[in-house]
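User: Show me a protein chain along with its predicted structure.
Assistant: Here is one chain, sequence first, then C-alpha cells.
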Amino acid sequence: MARRTSLQGPHPTSLTTRSINQGVSLLNNLEMQRQAKRTRYSTHLADEPDTDTDSIAPIYDAFLEAQGPEGILTMTNFSPSEFNILWADVRSHLFKHWNVGSGRKSEVTARDLLLMLLTSLKHCGAWDVVAAVFKQKVATFEKRVTKFLTVLYPFVMRNVSDKTIFDENLDFHTANLRKEATDMDLADADDLGPDRELRWAVLVDKGYQGAQRDVRTVLPLKKPMGGILTFEELRRNDRIASD
C-alpha cells in the first residue's frame, strides 16, 4: 500500500530566544533610524513670520529703481500694484511649498523669481535672452524658473470650472463678440438668438451650460430626461464637437 503523502509543508525553522532577540533588535534599529530622520523635519506647520523675509526682492527692487513702474509693466505686463496683488495671492502657497525641506535652498527669493517667471512667460522665445536680462547663466536660470513654476502651477490652476472663468471675463467676451460693420454681410446661422445681427455666437461644450443666458452660444444638445436625442440632433452635436 502506497504511503500517504503529507499535505502539510515542511516545518518552519524553530524560533529560538536568540533569533527572536536578533529580529526584534533589527526592527528596533530600523525604527531608531526612521526616528532619527524624522527629527530633521518639524512636525508642526511653521507660522508665517511677522517679518516677510521672502518678500525681500533685491532684483525686483533694482529693476523698479532703474526703470520705474513702466519698466516692470514692460517686463511682465503687470504694473507694480498688480504685481503686488498677484504676489499677495500666491505668497501663502509658496511659503508652504517652495524652498522648504532639507535640500539646497534657492539663492533667489520667491518674489524675485515671480518677476523672472512673468518676464519669461512674456518674452521667452529663448532662455538665453531673458537670462541675459537678469545676468544669470542660462542653465541655472532655466532650472530656477521651471522649478518655481512647477511649485506654483497647482495653485494657479486650482479647480475652477470653465463656466466660472467665462463668467468672470464676461465683459471681455461680450465686447469681442460684437460684430463690426464689415461683418454684417458674412453668413451666420439663423437659429441662435434674436441678436444674431449684432453679435457672433460662441462655440462651447457641455461645461458651459447657462452661458446662453448671457451670450449667443452654439451648445451641444443634452439628452432629455427619460428620452433620447434624434438622429439629426446627434449629427448636430457631432458637427459642434468637430469644429
